[in-house]
Amino acid sequence: PCSCRWLEVQMVTLTCTQRWVQYLQLLQESIWPGGVLPAVPKPPRTEEQKKATAEQALQSLMGILPNVIQEILGTSKCRMSWNLVLESLSQPVINRHLVFCLLDILLEFLVLKDSSKEPEAAAATPCACSGPDKSVPAL
Fold this sequence. Notes:
mainly alpha; globular
C-alpha cells in the first residue's frame, strides 16, 4: 500500500501543469537553443558517448527508485528493467509512437472540452511540485 501511494504522488508530480511547462521549455530549448535554429547540425555522437549517456541515464533512473523497491526486487533486476526501458527508447518507431501519444495527451489537455468548467477544476487542483515560493515562468 505504501509504494502505491508513493507511485501515485510521483505520477501527480510528473504530470502537473508546472512540470508540463518545464518539459515544453526544455523541449523548446533543445530544438531551438537560444530561440534560434542551429546553422549546422550537431556532429553524430560516437559509440563511447552513447554508452556514457546510457550509463548516466541508467544511474539517474536507479536513483528515483526507493531503496525498499530495490531491496524487494534486487538491484540487478531493477538495472535490467531500466536497461530494457532505455533500449526501447532507443528505437525510432517506439520514440515516434511515444511522441505522438504525448502530443495527443498534451493537445487533449490544452484543448478544453468544456471551457466553462475545466479551467476552474484545473486551477483548483494543486500541484505537488509547487509551493508558495515556487513560480513557473510563462512559455
